[in-house]
Design a protein that fits this description.
The complex is a heterodimer of chains A (112) and B (115). Chain A is mainly β. Chain A is built from no helices and eleven strands.
Chain lengths: 112, 115
């Protein structure tokens, strides 16, 4: 079974721009979560989607948003980028009765 | 609110020596506990998890962890370190409320293996 895939793997943007990151979960998994990883703040939860509905959200500003499609693929959008948004963004999928989140390789976003 | 504290941001051991990575958690409900490993430029890989079954949990690559409720701890151990164990390790806690799950991570422990 293929794992969680994230595209693109690397991204460079400038302040004020917006960016969209994509995540394809493991086949059959309906839950997708997003995390931000930075050296200063560590790993922080952004949000979780299940069956196209956001059912959990972390403490991030409204510039961070996401959505999930009917095939469970998810996108995360960050608008009006700030330097502090530079991070590794990790996506994780979970399915069935499992309590385990399986992570993708991440998208490294650099904001200049 | 749930939280995780990992004691020691850096741990260095010799190849063949015992690995002990410490994790203490805070949770108002019975916790789900996880250890993940991250190699450079990669995502997180699950090592093992505790979800209220056996308190001694065995994972991949020879790692195991023991859940101690009285000490609110979930320390990770491996009897004999291998060079390939060099990586960053994260302890995480979650609750599952109505199916939703949010992982709260510790700050991570970077493990170095000396030849």
């Amino acid at each position: 079974k293929a794992g969680v895939t994230q595209t693109p793997r690397y991204l460079i943007k400038t302040r004020g721009q917006q960016v969209t990151l994509s995540c394809s979960p493991i086949s059959g998994h309906r839950s997708v979560s997003w995390y931000q990883q930075t050296p200063g703040q560590g790993l922080q939860f952004l949000f979780e989607y299940f069956s196209e509905t956001q059912r959990n959200k972390g403490n991030f500003p409204g510039r961070f948003s996401g959505r999930q499609f009917s095939n469970s693929r998810s996108e995360m959008n960050v608008s009006t980028l700030e330097l502090g948004d530079s991070a590794l963004y990790l996506c994780a999928s979970r399915g069935g009765t499992t309590d385990t989140q399986y992570f993708g390789p991440g998208t490294r976003l650099t904001v200049l | 609110a749930q939280s995780v504290t990992q004691l020691g941001s850096h741990v260095s051991v010799s190849e063949g020596a015992l690995v002990l990575l410490r994790c203490n958690y805070s949770s108002s409900v019975p916790p789900y506990l996880f250890w993940y490993v991250q190699y450079p430029n990669q995502g997180l890989q699950l090592l093992l998890k505790y979800t209220s079954a056996a308190t001694l949990v065995k994972g991949i690559n020879g790692f195991e962890a023991e859940f101690k409720k009285s000490e609110t701890s979930f320390h990770l151990t491996k009897p004999s370190a291998h060079m390939s164990d060099a990586a960053e390790y994260f302890c995480a806690v979650s609750d599952n409320f109505q199916g939703a799950q949010k992982l709260v991570f510790g700050q991570g422990t970077r493990l170095t293996i000396n030849p």
